[in-house]
Each structure stands twice: as C-alpha cells, then as structure tokens.
Amino acid sequence: VRRVTSAGGDILYERKDVPQPRVVGSRELGMMNAMLRQVLTDGTGRAAAVQGWDIAGKTGTTDNSRDALFAGYSSNLVTGVWFGNDGGEPMKKVTGGTLPAETFAKFMTAAHKGVPPAPLPGIYDPGLRELPSSAQTGGMPFAEGRVEGEAGGTMPRPSAEVGAATGERRKPRNIFELIFGKKPG
Predict the structure, then answer these.
(1) What is this structure's pTM?
(2) Residue 166 CB: number of other CB atoms within 10 A?
C-alpha cells in the first residue's frame, strides 16, 4: 500500500520510501539464480519454462508422489504450485516436474502477458576467465589462484578471509560457512 485517500481525495496515509538494507551480494544472488535457472534448462523443471522470460525455480516430490510441487520466480513474480491429495494418498506418477511445472508455466505466461521481459538480478558468469574486481563482487575479496569449474573452465577462488572472524583463519566446512562465515543456526 503506497497511499490511502478519503472519498474526497484527502491523503489519510502515505508510505515513506525507506532505503532497504542489502541482504545478499550481487555475485551470490547471481550464483543462486544461475543454479535455479538450470533446473529449467537441464533439470527436472523443463516444463516450467516461460517463452521469452528468465525463470528460475525448483521441483519437489515427496515419497510415493504424495506431494508434488514447483516453486519458481521471474524478475516480477514468485509463484508456488502444489498438487496432492488431502488424505495423503499417493498420486499416479505426478512429480514436481510434470503437472506442477506445467501449471506454473501456464500461470506465469498469463500473469506476464503484456509485461516486458526483464532478466533476473545478480552478476555471475560461470565462464569467468579473469578474477573479478571488488566492484564486481561487492567488495568480496579473492585469493590469487583458480579452482576447476564446470565445463573445464576455472573460477576465482575465495580468499581465506571470506566469512572468517577477525584473526581467525580456517577452512570452511560447507557452502554455508563459505558464503556467510558461520555455522547455520
């Protein structure tokens, strides 16, 4: 709600624009979008693709197809589709990549009709050949050296300081520690 007016046109309430804090870096956001885009290009969510739109998402199916879902998003809209039986009985061969993904695509196509396509936010290039500048990584430092990436390419290696507490230098144990520098919880 941006503004509420009376029948006579008097402004009763107007929302003040307050700058929001950054919660994730552009590179990390780009990485997440790249990963979830592949669900639609190379994974189980191919049926969720929307012509002309940059879409990302994830399929899901519980044991014995009791629940099947597709949750995805464009730059304009987030949508989740779930199919299941109220009593918990299994469905016949319904997975997240079938009926839920198809329904998602039909809904998103209708919802985006007349809306100009826009790319998902974030900066990430899996074919990156040079170390990114601090401006490109939002100030995230990178160590000298490379690590092997997919398709034979190499990627910049995060420095040992990424996510470490002051004075502490240890190898991260999982992706969460690598990105955020601490254990979940």
Answers:
(1) 0.61
(2) 5
Number of C-beta neighbours around residue 105 at 10 A: 23
Contact 121, 26 (CB under 8 A): yes
Summarised one tens digit per residue, pLDDT across range 110-128 is 999 999 999 998 887 766 5
Q: Which of 135, 153, 134, 154 is nearest to 145 (CA)?
A: 154
Ranges in the chain, pLDDT < 50:
131, 141-157, 159-167
Comparing CA positions, the residue from 27, 40, 96, 113 lying closest to residue 73 is 40
- Is there a contact between 113 and 25 (Cβ–Cβ < 8 Å)? no
pLDDT for residue 97: 96
User: Taking a C-beta distance cutoff of 8 angstroms, is the pair 6, 17 a contact?
Assistant: no
Radius of gyration over every alpha carbon of the chain, rounded to an integer in angstroms = 21
End-to-end, the C-alpha distance of the chain in Å comes to: 33
